[in-house]
Design goal:
alpha+beta; seven-stranded mixed β-sheet; six-stranded antiparallel β-sheet; 13 strands
Length: 281
């Protein structure tokens, strides 16, 4: 089993668990997005820890490790969580994203290869299929589809989340045209946008030289405009709610001792065991 096959198998198993036990992911997502009450960006980092622990506790054939930000410079790929299939012993990494419904960064393209490579074709509209195949098979586009992205897409107004997986294979097979859209419409820099035969938007490679910030570079898509290129691991939107008790728990934990933390941890472990006893496999 390859790493890509292992990731695809994981998503199938993840979706099956959620379909049979929606309360588990609803609890986890409620706790994760409650972190926005603490800070607007806090939920993103804690989502990595929360989803990693969700896998460890409820997905019996898998284990996971949160890679952590301290290892960022040593990472060969964009990754937040390492997952091991305990049956096949194949490990793979995922990049976890927590974004609002709309623009979604699939890859930072940290070596800035995609946009410059597309520029060498010296065309505002690349429509030749052989050329498009050459682009996807190039070393400059080697990271396209080589990143296992698990996005937690949230709609804060309606308090709901959809865990959506971008279908890179479908995007590659259905790309029929790559169009350069120059700066304008609120954009400071240009982007190459990918479209299918029906002229429907798929994704885009944004400008990315040294002057570009995180919003201006890399591979992006849009969860609203490219719906047919996403598969939902949660079978649609999952409602969540704020857990103000958790905020209080954090505030107490920050001023309590390790002894108190150990006692609280033991009680939380008992609560998780009670949830496990009711899991439908």
């Amino acid at each position: 089993m390859s790493e890509q096959e292992a990731f695809e198998d994981f998503i199938v198993r993840f979706k099956r668990l959620i379909n049979k036990n929606p309360h588990l992911i609803k609890t986890a997502l409620s706790n994760i997005f409650t972190m926005r009450l603490i800070g607007n960006k806090t939920h993103g980092d804690l989502a990595e820890i929360g989803i990693s622990e969700f896998i460890n506790q409820f997905m019996y054939d898998f284990s996971s490790v949160h890679v952590g930000k301290d290892l960022y410079r040593a990472k060969s790929h964009e990754e937040d969580i390492k997952i091991i299939n305990e049956i096949s012993n194949v490990s793979f990494s995922i990049s976890l994203k927590a974004y609002g419904d709309g623009p979604l960064q699939l890859s930072t393209d940290k070596n800035s290869t995609m946009f410059p490579y597309l520029k060498i074709f010296n065309s505002d509209s690349i429509e030749d299929k052989n050329t498009i195949n050459k682009i996807f098979s190039s070393k400059e586009f080697s990271e396209f589809g080589n990143i296992n992205v698990l996005p937690l897409i949230y709609d804060e107004k309606n308090k709901r989340c959809n865990i959506m997986v971008f279908d890179f294979k479908k995007a590659i097979s259905e790309t029929n045209k790559i169009v350069l859209e120059k700066e304008g419409s609120g954009r400071k820099h240009p982007a190459f946008r990918f479209f299918n035969k029906q002229n429907e938007y798929i994704c885009e490679a944004r400008y990315g030289d040294a002057s570009a910030n995180a919003l201006q570079r890399g591979l992006w898509t849009n969860t609203k405009n490219a719906k047919s290129y996403f598969n939902s691991a949660t079978s649609g939107w999952i409602d969540y709610s704020d857990n103000t008790i958790l905020v209080k728990l954090f505030s107490y934990a920050l001023v309590s001792t390790v002894k108190g933390h150990k006692e609280a941890l033991a009680r939380l472990a008992n609560d998780i065991d009670e949830q496990k006893s009711k899991v439908s496999i």
